[in-house]
UniProtKB/TrEMBL annotation:
One of its GO terms (molecular function) is oxidoreductase activity, acting on CH-OH group of donors. It comes from the Bacteria. Residues 435-553 form the Glucose-methanol-choline oxidoreductase C-terminal domain. The lineage of its organism: Bacteria, Bacillati, Bacillota, Bacilli, Bacillales. This is GMC family oxidoreductase. Keywords: FAD, Flavoprotein, Oxidoreductase. Belongs to the GMC oxidoreductase family. It comes from Paenibacillus solani.
């Protein structure tokens, strides 16, 4: 029998960006909050002089142990799903701060089009533009409604950036100036301008200058060391929950963090959540934490799995298209890239930062005419300098042998002479793409793993080719030769890293018929349960998701405070 603890006002499941924001905002309002994190404690000092590519980038020191819990994957419902036992297509983080510790820091706002994608697509192109089986829907909120919360997240994190001429209107400028421009970034900007495109510096959570945020948290400027993605920042220059929102919550005296606490069920009775049951990983003891309000702020798979294991909400059924938990899983189309070889030029590609780059949105959202194209939406195109660490980077021209004398000679010749222009393509949901509980495979506690059913569609193949061609045009204008582009997007395969931007499963919407939560992240059918994260996205945009997660978390925090006073479903 589980040990029962005294009740708290709020219990948070997962202390990453969303959990940290909720903890900070609620404790400032006087609510007592317990944060349960299944990973271990983390502090900036852990990463001092830890530029170890082998440990962090290749052996995944900050990631989840797949031998204890993983996901299973199948491309369609006719085949058996198998567990992912080694990291490939995406990485699952674990520990205090979540993926906010080892992200790159690229902090975009989704476009106004994203939030009303179905209605705006139909208004411009008609219903026939949406192919059979594609389940896009409006989010139940507009960009203008969310804009103040984007602004708040950017001020908390000190985002360094400049105006994007093709994005939604801003109420304020970025709190810090854009990052420095390298020679290759200047080449990209000049090429894009010649092609009459609209380049701008990537909005960055790697600080361009020293900064103190509205909560009084001071951080140092980025040193451009190139160790961002898959690494913690030894300078605190990269915004993460451990150096921004979590200290604010701790300072109130109202926030208790319990690490190595693995939440296995949300407890509920009579249509209301009553708390959570978790296992203390240090002792194996089962513990019940009662709470007036429960907030699930985990990663996409964790949020969805917890709803299914706890029997909250109606599971999605692909055959009938009914149900909401597990619906609208989406990924990201990341392979629309182009690389050019610069025969007589050398660049310092080993220096950089996770969010150092120049991008453009001329081919993102509905910023361009799709009338004669066989896809909707698009993607952000960028040239980034994230730091090409030596073990993972060794580009050679197409046709070069993969070993031997010629391979070695070409490797040396083209080291620091290859520039890439890449894209982040959007991902549209389809009726037969979803998350559910695997009927065969279980975790270390005997609970079913989450199962992904997903593959690339014609929408994705058309989009990837289109974006790759646009990237190739920019590389050519930059002066690149022997340009490598995508020829064909094959079936989705889970063994090669692509993107950790998974979305959907506990999606938001305008009504309980097509969504699990409202625009305050509140469960339609369990009013004191809030589910926050990229699991709320009904589709994935052509951007990194973190900026939009942060904005939704700040809006949800306001909603939770309001609910704590009024005790009813928010509208």
């Amino acid at each position: 029998m589980a040990k029962k603890l005294p009740k708290t006002d709020v219990v948070i499941i997962g202390v990453g960006w969303a959990g940290g924001i909720i903890a900070s905002e609620l404790t400032k309002k006087g609510l007592s909050v317990v944060g349960l994190e299944r990973g271990k404690e983390r502090v900036t000092e852990d990463y001092y002089m830890a530029h170890d590519e082998l440990r962090y980038a290749l052996r995944y020191d900050l990631m989840q142990d797949l031998s204890k819990e993983t996901i299973t994957f199948r491309s369609n419902e006719k085949v058996r799903a198998l567990p992912m036992r080694s990291y490939g297509s995406f990485l699952l983080g674990e520990g205090l701060g979540g993926a906010g510790v080892h992200w790159n820091g690229q902090t975009f706002r989704f476009l106004p089009y994203d939030f009303k994608i179905r209605s705006m697509t139909i208004d411009r192109y008609g219903k026939d533009k949406i192919p059979p089986g594609m389940t896009i829907q409006d989010w139940g909120i507009t960009y203008d409604e969310l804009e103040p919360f984007f602004d708040k997240f950017e001020k908390t994190t000190g985002i360094s950036g400049e105006e994007n001429p093709m994005a939604g209107k801003r109420s304020n400028a970025y709190p810090t100036p854009p990052m420095l421009h390298t020679p290759s970034m200047k080449m990209f900007t000049e090429a894009a301008n010649k092609l009459k495109l609209h380049p701008y510096t990537v909005p960055s959570a790697n600080l361009s200058e020293n900064y103190t945020n509205p909560d009084g948290i001071s951080r140092a400027a980025c040193q451009y060391c190139g160790y961002c993605e898959r690494f913690g920042c030894e300078y605190g220059a990269k915004a993460d929950p451990v150096v921004t929102v979590i200290p604010v919550a701790k300072k109130t005296g109202k926030f208790e963090i319990r690490t190595l606490s693995y939440v296995r069920r949300i407890l509920h009775k009579g249509g209301k959540a009553t708390g959570v049951m978790y296992t203390d990983l240090t002792t194996g003891e089962e513990i019940e934490q009662p709470a007036d309000i429960v907030v699930s702020t985990g990663y996409v798979f964790n949020n969805t799995r917890l709803m299914l294991l706890s029997k909250i909400g109606k599971p999605y059924d692909s055959a009938s298209g009914t149900g909401v938990i597990g619906k609208n899983y989406a990924y990201q189309v990341i392979k629309g890239t182009a690389a050019g070889f610069f025969e007589d030029q050398k660049f310092n590609l080993y220096a950089g930062a996770g969010s150092l780059g120049v991008s453009l949105d001329d081919y993102n959202g509905d910023n361009f005419d799709h009338s004669d194209l066989k896809f909707i939406h698009g993607g952000n195109i960028a040239h980034t300098m994230t730091g090409q660490r030596p073990i993972q980077n060794n580009p050679v021209p197409e046709g070069t042998p993969i070993w031997g004398k010629d391979f070695k000679a070409k490797s040396l010749k083209y080291a620091n002479s290859v520039l890439t222009v890449g894209s982040q393509g959007s991902s549209m949901p389809f009726r037969h793409h979803y998350l559910d509980l695997d009927p065969t495979y279980k975790d270390q506690f005997g609970d079913p793993l989450i199962r992904i059913t997903f593959d690339f569609e014609d929408q994705d193949r058309e989009l990837a080719r289109y974006l790759s061609d646009r990237c190739g045009e920019i590389v050519k204008e930059m002066g690149g030769q022997n340009i490598l582009k995508l020829k064909e997007l094959g079936p989705y395969e889970i063994t090669t890293y692509q993107s950790t931007h998974n979305t959907g499963g506990v999606i938001m919407g305008e009504n309980p018929g097509n969504s699990a939560i409202n625009n305050h992240m509140q469960m339609w059918d369990m009013e004191n349960l809030f589910v926050i994260g990229a699991s709320a996205f009904p589709h994935n945009s052509g951007y990194n998701p973190t900026g939009t997660i942060g904005a939704l978390a700040y809006r949800a925090a306001d909603g939770i405070v309001e609910y704590s006073k009024k005790g009813k479903l928010l509208v």
